[in-house]
């Protein structure tokens, strides 16, 4: 196991972080209790989490300021200070969006997310100190390399943000936080018999088709089918509550339209996959709609590609 993997594995298992995580969770749960605010912060209108997009401005401006410090000389120090100011102003909204996403994590994801946030807080603190030092006329490295200078604080901040970014990448690409939990599920390509039509009522019913959990119910007398695994964190929607023509996730309260799979209320950002349904001879049959490449062939080379060599 590589050194970086050992660090991450230990971090994921570090139960000493749970007490701090619990207090942070209680604080942010209270601060972000408004469903409309969670909707905004989750990125429902964008169709994917807001936080990864929101961090571009603070990360870009702050790291650019450090680059100007290192390569631009004293003539560009005023520009670096202005970039730091912009980065600090934009860091708040990006951080709150991140905390909103973090609220719906648990276990290893919550621990890594907590340290990810801590690294970013340290980085922002260093850049705040750097901006203050520059405001007082101490932009460069102080005599003897004193760490309180603007440049030294900027370099320390860049290092902390780098570690935070590395952990953020692990959260998304290794632990799957923010990833559509149905992204690699397929469902049947051909019409597949599921059950008798009389067994489907207005209640929420789960069936398994080709290894994929599917939620069946009736809307205005018509049978509809959506993926039963919530795209947000994987909860079984059939365990949730029906609210008119919507289903509410039992874990985090996201609401989805039963006919279209659209997200009506977050924190989910991705719609539920919808399956085509028909009744034949008193039986219900369904099949998937057109799928994307990764869903159709999640492992191995694409069947329509010629192997190299």
UniProtKB/TrEMBL annotation:
The keyword Metal-binding applies. InterPro entries: DUF2231_TM (IPR019251), Rieske_2Fe-2S (IPR017941), Rieske_2Fe-2S_sf (IPR036922). Keywords: 2Fe-2S, Iron, Iron-sulfur, Metal-binding. Residues 191-286 form the Rieske domain. It comes from the Bacteria. One of its GO terms (molecular function) is 2 iron, 2 sulfur cluster binding. PROSITE patterns: RIESKE (PS51296). Pfam families: DUF2231, Rieske. This is Rieske Fe-S membrane protein. It comes from Frankia alni (strain DSM 45986 / CECT 9034 / ACN14a).
